């Protein structure tokens, strides 16, 4: 005769045993990862010494408040410009062809070298000599490149009049 | 089909076309991408989003709405096409703010995100404008955010024409259109049945599962004071959407690391919906259906979509329990299993193996049922094994075995969908098989399918039917036979089919003599005109499917009534062709599979008879044991044998027999007499209260396995979680008990059990886990090479001579309780809950919608007895009593009342009223043959059904989303007009949508 019963006597977990088991599991994990744990402890010690842990703790405790303030600060026109400029610069870098940049930067380096020497020697060319140097093939090449550069820039300005206003 | 295929040229390449395909379908079937936000393969053409514009014959046309024609040339890449698509997408983004990285729908499958990215949208052409409506968070399971809604109408199409609940519309007349529920009420107060279709098809985050919000993304849980400025910031600094999309894609990829997507098969009804479960640790984020799912596509119902909280319920059994001194004590598995093994061995030795019975579960997998019957037959040594099909569809199985040879649906959902006439008798699919019902409702609404319903209760399909028949209870065999006879008398029977494919034709026809229209009219209450009308509709239809369920099978003459249905189908030649056949709708997710895999007293797996010595030898050889030659006891026999004292012990798993078997008091008192009772379940059920040992089992999400749905379709489900606590999958438990009794089993995965079943049962010989990988499925019988059999009897019936057999049957009068019991008690299911409710009542949302059961009473009865919504009444039958509050409704008529079975309360559950009378052939209880008397306990009280239930809603039927109304708006300018003439206006227009 088994009458319907609803009483279930649950084994009350023994808190001391449960704790001992948990501690055992933690110790095993620590021992298995001894090297990493010790390095992490050393880092934590340093962070503690210079007060960063305290600061992090305070930020996390008040994460919503801090987050709101941070967003307020970031969400400002100046910061918008900074972020936008960073993105544009990043995009710009992506559009440059490395070999072009290399030859241009080579030119800049060489130019700077000669410029440095000229300043060091306190050279001053007369107007005649300056005019004559325009016939110099090196100067002509550099001037042509600069004019083409200006052409390209102008083309972009006329084709996409809105872009610089964006 | 391929004979009629032709080709068209898209982008200078040849593409093969099947007749009827649109340009978009041709492209998609060849993996050529054309943007298409509002198009969905399960919904068809909607034409609201305009992103699928392509050029054909120099014109801009919508690829989703333009049928491919021979010789057609199409361009999907030209400038006008790009311009038109870009314009369409820009209009969409005026209605949708892109903050993908902090959006919970950013999971790699967001249609709006992916389309905007494909179209290389760089900037918002039309500024995003908020809509003047707050989000609707009223529904417990999902929300609507108008500001994110792109008005594509997928949700409306799904609600109107796929689910056919007709709740959602878009109000195009407002200055800012939006989706509305009913006549613009909060979602929770509408006619919404919470099926989830709208959420499943939403291409963005406008309709979202609440369980996803703040949970799916890494940043989406940020509080609004941080999140909102962050969205503003991102919009402010965006150089273009390309970079934003890149970041959101990284975030979406990161989500994959912590959100698991696992395919499963629904564990509620027998339709067999499959879908992915998205989980984060043990948290269920959502159910995500896919158009790959063979049965349901993207369709779900309220339970399959939302009813999974039970898996993580804190009420789950997590440790074995052993009865000691009038209470259950928690025990270790070793203690519990040792006790079971020693007790069963002891009882077997003392009283013989026939003193032990096993009750199997139609919620458990095929593999678990296979092992359960192997355990009974090979380890205990008895055929005393049965499952709960004994409570539902055994009579249908028996009726089909008599007439056509196989005990299952004769076709698939595809046949039901494409049939000319669907005839539903004694079944309520809209609540009991919701996704199957959607296919009938859709075919009926859109494709001219005729629908006849014969029922005593006016449920949803009855309300939608072309013709509704309301016979007197328990008289179905009579009117079905009368309709059959009338058809023969009119010479409308399919003489060629009968001559070639059916035996006993003349013998059977003679037995119909008594079923005249006059006799039927007198006995059933249906008029002659009604009977003639039903016969005529059957005669005029080229193909007929008959669907039936408990309204037929839970009667004294249930097998005979099922046989009469099959006879009618044979007489009219409605077997073996697409769109025809017999469909006894299966109630549980795996009630078909439990039977198929042999948890029946007289059948081995695959319906191979125990009594056949050759078949028995096959199993004896495979298992190295001797198996008793006589069929064992069924559920009903077992209850009586316990009362008689010959059955001493019962091992029951996954079955609430104490409440679900009829005449609960009688069944529960038999449990008290058992010497030893093992109950294995996921919850501490009523039945478990009588057990000596209770074992904690694992539900489908915590194990691998397969289920068979009502179509005979075998589908795999995969383990999502580890079993909760110390619970275990049922198959592992059986193996451990069996091995303690010396079996020496060594299954490491359910696939090995399936391999064994396939090697033994002929109808499964081609079944394997590899072939069932993912969303693949097989409909049995499955041949060795893996070919399956969606439509049965195309060439021959499943008898040795290949011919079907007309089987003469006669009417059995129902059980009468006596004159004082003056009210007929009908009973069955509700949409929101499942059976006694041990799974569904664990869901807060489902319980919000339906907190408990009620008694449906007619207006006539309410007037006669002074009943109102909330009157507390006591119902008394000769077998027991229940107390329940009434709900006055026109779903029931006269003195017929309806009591849902969805309660496990001792003073409510319907089976405290039902009797032990049963079907004469299969012993299925005659649940539907009970009369009661009613006494009022409290004249007024709280109405039992809250007003926020769909039954109080106000449907708004229409076809599709009425895109024409959008096109008529004064501010709408057709995109083809803007770009159609070569696109020369591009760049100058700034046309607001």
TrEMBL record, chain B:
Protein name (record): Formate dehydrogenase subunit alpha
Entry's family note: In the C-terminal section; belongs to the prokaryotic molybdopterin-containing oxidoreductase family.
Cofactor(s) needed by this chain: [2Fe-2S] cluster; [4Fe-4S] cluster; Mo-bis(molybdopterin guanine dinucleotide)
GO biological process entries: formate metabolic process; L-histidine biosynthetic process; respiratory electron transport chain
Pfam families: Fer2_4, Fer4_7, Molybdop_Fe4S4, Molybdopterin, Molydop_binding, NADH-G_4Fe-4S_3
Domain 4Fe-4S ferredoxin-type, chain residue ranges per copy: 140-159, 183-212
Keyword Iron: yes
Domain 4Fe-4S His(Cys)3-ligated-type: 80-120
Residues annotated as domain 4Fe-4S Mo/W bis-MGD-type: 259-315
Keyword Phosphoprotein: no
Superkingdom assignment: Bacteria
InterPro entries: 2Fe-2S_ferredoxin-like_sf (IPR036010), 2Fe-2S_ferredoxin-type (IPR001041), 4Fe4S_Fe-S-bd (IPR017896), 4Fe4S_Fe_S_CS (IPR017900), Asp_de-COase-like_dom_sf (IPR009010), Formate_Dh-H_N (IPR041924), Formate_DH_asu (IPR006478), ImidazoleglycerP_deHydtase_CS (IPR020565)
SMART domains: Molybdop_Fe4S4 (SM00926), NADH-G_4Fe-4S_3 (SM00929)
């Amino acid at each position: 005769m088994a009458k319907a019963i609803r009483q279930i006597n649950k084994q009350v977990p023994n808190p001391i045993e449960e704790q001992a088991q948990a501690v055992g599991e933690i110790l095993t994990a620590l021992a298995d990862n001894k090297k990493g744990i010790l390095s992490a402890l050393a880092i934590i010690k340093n962070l503690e010494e210079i007060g960063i842990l305290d600061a992090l703790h305070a930020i996390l405790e008040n994460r919503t408040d801090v987050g709101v303030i941070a967003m307020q600060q970031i969400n400002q026109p100046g910061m918008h410009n900074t972020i936008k400029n960073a993105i544009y610069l990043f995009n710009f870098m992506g559009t440059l062809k490395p070999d072009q940049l290399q030859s241009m930067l080579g030119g800049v380096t060489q130019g700077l070298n000669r410029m440095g020497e000229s300043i060091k020697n306190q050279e001053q060319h007369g107007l005649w000599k300056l005019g004559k140097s325009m016939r110099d093939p090196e100067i002509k090449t550099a001037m042509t490149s600069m004019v083409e550069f200006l052409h390209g820039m102008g083309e972009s300005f006329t084709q996409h009049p809105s872009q610089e206003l964006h | 089909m391929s004979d009629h295929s032709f080709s068209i040229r898209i982008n200078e390449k040849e593409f093969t076309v099947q007749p009827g395909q649109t340009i978009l379908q041709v492209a998609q079937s060849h993996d050529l991408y054309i943007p298409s936000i509002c198009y969905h393969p399960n919904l068809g053409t909607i034409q609201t989003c305009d992103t699928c514009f392509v050029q054909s014959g120099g014109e801009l046309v919508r690829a989703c709405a333009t049928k491919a024609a021979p010789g057609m040339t199409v361009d999907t890449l030209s400038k006008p096409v790009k311009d038109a698509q870009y314009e369409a997408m820009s209009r969409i983004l005026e209605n949708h703010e892109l903050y993908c990285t902090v959006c919970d729908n950013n999971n790699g499958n967001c249609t709006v995100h992916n389309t905007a990215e494909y179209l290389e949208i760089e900037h918002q052409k039309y500024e995003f404008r908020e809509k003047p409506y707050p989000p609707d968070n009223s529904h417990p399971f999902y929300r609507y955010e108008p500001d994110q809604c792109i008005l594509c109408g997928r949700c409306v199409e799904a609600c109107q024409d796929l689910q056919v609940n007709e709740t959602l519309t878009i109000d195009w007349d407002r200055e800012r259109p939006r989706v509305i529920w009913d006549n613009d009420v909060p979602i929770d107060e509408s006619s919404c049945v919470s099926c989830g279709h709208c959420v499943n098809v939403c291409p963005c985050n406008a309709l979202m599962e609440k369980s996803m919000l703040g949970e799916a993304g890494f940043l989406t849980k940020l509080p609004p004071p941080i999140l909102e400025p962050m969205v503003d910031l991102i919009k402010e600094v965006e150089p273009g959407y390309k970079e934003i999309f890149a970041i959101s894609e990284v975030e979406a990829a990161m989500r994959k690391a912590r959100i698991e997507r696992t395919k499963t098969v629904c564990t509620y009804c027998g339709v067999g919906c499959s879908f992915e479960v998205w989980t984060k640790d043990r948290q269920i984020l959502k159910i995500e259906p896919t158009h790959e799912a063979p049965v349901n596509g993207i369709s779900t119902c309220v339970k399959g979509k939302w009813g999974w909280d039970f898996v993580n319920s804190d009420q789950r059994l997590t440790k074995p329990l052993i009865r000691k001194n009038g209470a259950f004590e928690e025990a270790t598995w070793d203690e519990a299993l040792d006790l079971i093994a020693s007790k069963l061995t002891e009882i077997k030795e003392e009283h013989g193996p026939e003193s032990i019975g096993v009750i199997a579960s139609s919620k458990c997998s095929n593999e678990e049922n296979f092992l359960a019957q192997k355990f009974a037959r090979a380890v205990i040594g008895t055929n005393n094994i049965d499952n709960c099909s004994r409570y539902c569809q055994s009579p249908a199985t028996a009726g089909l075995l008599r007439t056509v040879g196989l005990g299952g649906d004769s076709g698939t959902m595809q046949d039901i969908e494409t049939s000319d006439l669907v005839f539903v008798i004694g079944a309520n699919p809209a609540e009991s098989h919701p996704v199957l019902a959607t296919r009938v409702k859709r075919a009926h609404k859109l494709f001219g399918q005729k629908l006849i319903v014969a029922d005593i209760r006016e449920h949803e399909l009855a309300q939608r039917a072309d013709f509704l028949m309301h016979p007197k209870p328990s008289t179905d065999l009579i009117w079905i036979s009368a309709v059959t006879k009338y058809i023969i008398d009119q010479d409308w029977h399919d003489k060629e089919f009968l001559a070639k494919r059916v035996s006993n034709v003349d013998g059977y026809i003679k037995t119909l003599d008594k079923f005249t229209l006059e006799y039927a009219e007198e006995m059933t209450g249906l008029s002659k005109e009604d009977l003639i009308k039903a016969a005529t509709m059957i005669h005029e239809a080229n193909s007929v499917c008959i669907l039936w369920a408990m309204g037929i099978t839970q009667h004294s003459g249930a097998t005979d009534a099922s046989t009469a249905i099959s006879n009618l189908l044979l007489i009219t030649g409605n077997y073996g062709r697409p769109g025809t056949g017999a469909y006894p709708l299966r109630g549980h997710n795996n009630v078909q599979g439990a039977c198929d895999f042999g948890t029946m007293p007289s059948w081995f797996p695959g319906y191979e008879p125990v009594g056949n010595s050759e078949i028995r030898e096959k199993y004896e050889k495979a298992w190295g044991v001797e198996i008793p030659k006589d069929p064992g006891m069924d559920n009903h026999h077992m209850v009586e044998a316990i009362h008689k004292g010959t059955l001493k012990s019962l091992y029951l798993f996954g079955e609430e027999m104490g409440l679900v078997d009829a005449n609960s008091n009688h069944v529960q008192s038999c449990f008290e007499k058992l010497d030893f009772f093992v109950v294995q379940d996921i919850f501490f059920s009523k039945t478990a209260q009588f057990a000596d040992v209770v074992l904690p089992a694992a539900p489908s999400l915590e194990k691998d396995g397969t289920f068979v749905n009502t179509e005979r379709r075998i589908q795999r489900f995969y383990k999502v979680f580890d079993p909760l606590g110390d619970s275990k999958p049922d198959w592992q438990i059986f193996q451990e008990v069996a091995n303690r009794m010396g079996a020496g089993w060594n299954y490491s995965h359910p696939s090995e059990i399936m391999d064994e079943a396939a090697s033994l049962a002929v109808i499964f010989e081609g079944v394997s886990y590899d072939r069932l990988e993912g969303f693949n499925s097989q409909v049995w019988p499955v041949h060795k090479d893996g070919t399956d059999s969606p439509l049965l009897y195309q060439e021959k019936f499943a008898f040795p001579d290949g011919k079907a057999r007309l089987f003469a049957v006669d009417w059995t009068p129902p059980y009468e309780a006596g004159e004082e019991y003056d009210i007929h008690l009908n009973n069955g299911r509700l949409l929101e809950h499942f059976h006694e409710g041990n799974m569904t009542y664990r869901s807060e949302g489902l319980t919000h919608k339906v907190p408990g059961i009620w008694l449906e009473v007619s207006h006539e009865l309410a007037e006669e007895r002074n009943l109102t919504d909330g009157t507390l009444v006591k119902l008394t039958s000769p077998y027991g009593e229940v107390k329940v509050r009434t709900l006055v409704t026109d779903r029931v008529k006269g003195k017929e009342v309806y009591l849902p079975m969805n309660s496990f309360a001792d003073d409510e559950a319907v089976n405290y009223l039902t009797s032990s009378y049963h079907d004469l052939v299969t012993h299925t209880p005659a649940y539907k043959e009970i009369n009661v008397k009613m006494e009022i306990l409290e004249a007024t009280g709280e109405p039992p059904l809250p007003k926020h239930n769909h039954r109080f809603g106000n449907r708004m039927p229409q076809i599709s989303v009425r895109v024409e109304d959008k096109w008529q708006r004064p501010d709408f300018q057709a995109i083809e007009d803007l770009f159609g003439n070569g696109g020369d206006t591009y760049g100058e227009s700034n046309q607001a949508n």
